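chain below, 587 aa
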Amino acid sequence: ASKLRLDWVVVAADVGVYQEVAGDRLVPALGVAAQCRGRRKIETLLRILEATHFDLVLSDVDNVFRRDPFAKGVNLGDLIRAHNFDYIFQEEPKELNGRPDSQHVALGDAGGTGFSFVAGSRKPKSVQAWFATLLAEFDLSQCGDEKTVFWKVLNALRLSHGGTKHETHAFQCVGMCGQPQVCKAKMGETLEYCAMDPLVHVVGGEDTSISQLVTYHANDASSEVKIKKLQTMKLWAATQQLGSAGQPPVSGSGEQRGEQSKPAVSADQPTSPHEISEEDKRIQGVVQKRVGVYADKAAHSEFGKVLLLTSANAAYFPVYRTWECWASRHGLDWAVIANDDEAYRQLGPDQGIAVIGEKVSGMVGWGSAKLDHLGRNKYAVVLSIMRLSGVDVMFSDADNMFHRDPFAQGVSLGDLIRSQKYDYVYQEELQKKPDPSHVAPGDGGNTGFWYAAGSRKPHIQTFLAVALAEVDRVQASNDMHIGADQNIFWNMFNDLRNSHGSKQGTYGFKCASFCGKSATCEASSEETLDYCNMDPIMHPTGWEEANPAEFVTYHANYVANEMKIKKLEKMQLWGIWDATTGKCTPS
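prediction:
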């Protein structure tokens, strides 16, 4: 696929994939790992269809592309290009009874499910309802064979001649490769499908003309036999350049993690067998320049792998500039997620990271889809940073002011990071000052000020990727596209805590341990998410009783826009930026 200059994503069926494939190429498989593989696949595809309305080409990894299957003149590409079909499938040897002759006509009653096309944009509601029916049939069959369940549902529709309840399948009729429909129905109620040419898109046979085939599916065989089939078809040797067992070399994994002489960040180090994108190179450049938390990189080596990160758009710059002045006063260094083009222009390419996701301009407040998109985008950028560099990330909203140095010795946040005990450190979400007996329950917090150790355990990327996928799912599930990342993140976090080890396949981590206490289940250190909260007196969230003599940071939340400024004025944190001179005021 890489030789053909194609691009793709991978449904990650287990957490091991996250150590082998770039994080921005992965979609976590939904459902519990113990569930059947076919059901998880269908559920994941259904959520993608619901969230995007995209068309999908699905290919097993043993279905190798010898030539470009989407090129003009190639059967699959031409069928898709015709815009006539909702579903395109690959016939299989059992249905073909060996290599088909030139007169072969597909019956349309059976086929494979490992190489197909689904038009999610053509009749989106009907296609989604069809996949929902497939999901329900998996549950009724107690997780039957994927191919059997799929064709049972499609043949029930074919043979119903329009008698199947419309609410069940959304589609009432089918039409095979432009042939007459099996019943009368509107175009939007007809599933139009077709088979690929089996001489061009070959399944498993070894009596195949190599010169004619475009794709070759090495199925109906064990792993070792698949390899032999691919070798016979001259499709295996190309993978050897990728590394042992055909696996791509991964930045920061395997032997590289043990090589102390290599820098934590290298702008020239690829993260996959592909040439990395220009945007990835820009991100690597910003991280390489800014990582270390302090401007004096040599003075604080314990933070050498920590990147301080905030975010802003142009309309929010008065707040960001105030944050910048406080951070500069403490000798800090940082990068900024630029949420719109003007913010990126003002920040410049050596400090700004262009947002990954929807750009958001203007001042936004709670309950708006725009604010929720900002919350979503930070996970996408943090994941990209971790994938490209393997660093830890310290994220702070720009309304979370650093009154004193939060990384200094004796300060809660700095000491928690310095201890190197935690994968995740968060700020409690409290509306008023806690009494001295307060003990954090560990079940919720603010997602505008947190630390994630990207260099400690690889599962943290899996965990954050699942959080991103869940935010995307929730935002796509409603017409307003709203879904606050904070509630979604902690619902997911608590699902892990309460699973007692049963959802490792979903979250990467198996258990969680809060502030050094007993874990929620028995697991190795690598499989345990160690997390802790910052001291809420040193790091308060917006309560009115906060005392500048006590706090180190102050997060002006629970209000929006101009009201944040009033809170910051009250806490003696506003006015450090002089908009007239464009400079910070002297300390």
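The chain has a mean pLDDT of 86. The radius of gyration is 27 Å.
thats it, cya
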